[in-house]
Amino acid sequence: MVPSVRFSPASRSLFDEPLAIAVQGLGPRQQVTLRTSLWDEMGELFQACARYQAGDDGGLDLARCPALPGGSFSGLEPMGLLWALQPQKPFRRLVKRDVQTPFLLQLEVFEGHGEPPGRLLAQAQHERAFLRDGVRRVPVREGRIWATLFLPPGNGPFPGIIDLYGAGGGLPEYRACLLANYGFAVLALAFYGYEDLPKEMKEFHLEYFEEAVNYMLQHTQVKGPGIGLLGISKGGDLCISMASFLKGITATALINGSVANVGAVLRYKDITIPPLGVNAKHIKVNKSGIADIVDALNNPLEGPDHQSFIPLEKAECRFLFIVGQDDRNWKSEFFAVEGSKRLQAHGKEKPEIVCYPGAGHYIEPPFFPMCAASMHVLVGKPVVWGGEPKAHCEAQIDAWQQIQAFFRKHLTGKPSGTSNKL
Description:
Elements: E1 4-8, E2 12-14, E3 20-24, E4 31-39, E5 45-53, E6 60-61, H1 80-83, E7 86-87, E8 103-111, E9 120-129, E10 136-142, E11 145-151, E12 158-164, H2 174-180, E13 185-189, E14 203-205, H3 206-218, E15 222-232, H4 234-245, E16 249-255, E17 265-268, E18 271-273, E19 284-285, E20 291-292, E21 318-324, H5 332-345, E22 352-356, E23 373-375, E24 382-384, H6 389-412
Parallel strand pairs: 2-9, 12-13, 12-15, 14-17, 15-16, 16-21, 21-22
Antiparallel strand pairs: 1-3, 3-6, 4-5, 4-8, 5-7, 8-9, 10-11, 11-13, 17-18, 19-20, 23-24
């Protein structure tokens, strides 16, 4: 038999779905090296490799066969060749800019465990897509807002969510798009560094975000009476501010967010919340020039910095805090615990806090490879984000389910676990 690669699903899967990988037609107990390659839209190459030994029948199923030491990972890791992908140039993070096209994953099977690998025995390609068939992508230019709305297949109305990314700016759509695949109407909202929005993170006006909330509340395809908010990093504290001051928010989920306003002045009507102070002396830079900024922010419980603490006790919504316990961007667990204390001190419901040991700052949808370090727009140099690749991957899989269950429960009234689709 000629060796061949078998994928399931065969040729195309959603990026956040598991992918079964097997090789058939090898010799009994033959040693091989498997290598995955993926090019992002900027032409950057991400690769992972693993060493395996085929079974007595010449078959190799990654769900049953552990990887041997010496590759990107070892042990029984059916999805290891995806979560272990690493950039060939340092400080690159895998992101998807155009959700309408898939990533193309290439798998090669080489003879032996040598460096460099031996003869090429088999290869195959697989598409990792973002848009489920029937999901509609609607560019939104309404009033001042720049956004993209993703609507699931069917007639609706659907539970609505506004999705915010962090200090990188622009209009990332991939998380909103993947979430819409599960029956949510999701608005990916740009708030700076895009079109005619401010070029820099200096001052934000909550009225801009209020326009987005009202757009969703009035949309015929969005199920009321309230909507959800999902934010990571800087997007997290913006979501807390929205929930604290704006009407119509029912559920707010934060991924490694801050309960203090960070990085820019926040204004709403006659209210001004200053940004949390930064002490540059607390930034540690290693020999490679990579910064560790986890201690750079001041404590929002002390001195004048308490003015930066967002009054989340004003919010009329439920909160979910997703926390990577190895977040090196800032002290996410501390922020979640202090937010919880503040809510309970004001007689509000205790938020859900889900902590993940070994997870870093960028907790993305499942199977995005962990980004250990990359450029930080505000710091102006590469920073370490924290995390251990396998634990981080497992956190992403679980957090994705937690976020969907949270929104399903609070936006539809349906208990979690009834169905993946609404």
